[in-house]
Amino acid sequence: MVSPLMIWNQRKIAYPNADSISRHHIVIWYRMAKRLLIKALQNFEMPQNSSWR
Questions:
Q1: Helices (H), the chain
Q2: What superkingdom heads the lineage (predicted)?
């Protein structure tokens, strides 16, 4: 049985920039989540929300 960690390490050797690609995906997801959060806050229209914009 081959452990997933061994496969991951082999992938790391084969593709050294795999880490930077996954980091880039995290950034994209973070931006998307932030945009959705801001939109949700704007939908609530709280009095202190005007200072957020």
A1: 4-14, 18-44
A2: Eukaryota
Please give the structure tokens belonging to residue 6: 């061994």
With contact defined as beta carbons under 8 Å apart, do 41 and 49 qualify? yes
Q: Write the CB contacts of 46 (distance below 8 Å, at least 6 apart in sequence).
A: none
**38 Cβ partners below 8 Å, 6+ apart?**
52
Q: How confident is the model at residue 15 (pLDDT cuts 50, 70, 90)?
A: low
* Whether 38 contacts 49, CB under 8 Å: no
| Span 32-51, pLDDT tens digits | 999 999 888 888 776 665 55
